[in-house]
Amino acid sequence: MAYNDLTPEEAYVILEKGTEAPFSGALNSNKETGVYTCKQCNTALFDSESKFDSGTGWPSFDDDIAGAVKRISDSDGHRVEIVCATCGGHLGHVFEGERITPKSTRHCVNSLSLNFIKE
Ligand SMILES: [Zn+2]
């Protein structure tokens, strides 16, 4: 499979599991209708319907597209990392039980890990 070329900033987040600065991402406040895809392999990961404003400074989704996102327990035993199930690219972390939305799930994702395709 051919992957998209990444900028140094994108590679830091996607390949080295870095985190972009909060409120720095281009998609944090995006409210348009469409689909969010993996920057590295173009797999559809999140639908705009699941996006909500968490106030954290990172794009937040209370659901993922079935089978597109894989969960991995962090070595610190506290957080759960989420990666693209297709290419393994780092997306961010998932948090449950915060009751911000009815699904009580927050996928906290770096803008740099995503592309947005407007409907
Ligand atoms: Zn991917």
Give the gist of this structure.
The chain has one helix and nine strands; from the N terminus they run H-E-E-E-E-E-E-E-E-E.
Order of strands in the sheet with most strands: 3-4-8-7-6-5
Q: What structural category characterises the helix and strand content?
A: mainly beta
Q: How big a fraction of the residues is strand?
A: 25-35%
Distance between the termini: 26 Å
Q: Per the principal axes of the C-alpha atoms, what is the gross shape? A: globular
What's the total helix number?
1
Strand segment count: 9
Cα gyration radius (Å)? 13 Å
Poorly predicted residue ranges: none
Helix content: under 10%
Question: Are any ligands bound, and if so which?
Answer: zinc ion
Average residue-wise pLDDT = 96
The arrangement of helices and strands along the chain is HEEEEEEEEE
Largest beta-sheet characterization: 6 strands, antiparallel
Keywords:
single chain; 119 residues; mainly beta; 6-stranded antiparallel beta sheet; 3-stranded antiparallel beta sheet; 1 helix; 9 strands; 6% helix; 34% strand; binds zinc ion
Break the fold down into its secondary structure elements and pairings.
Layout: H1 8-14, E1 34-38, E2 44-47, E3 51-52, E4 60-61, E5 69-73, E6 80-84, E7 90-96, E8 105-109, E9 114-118
Antiparallel strand pairs: 1-2, 1-9, 3-4, 4-8, 5-6, 6-7, 7-8
The protein binds zinc ion.
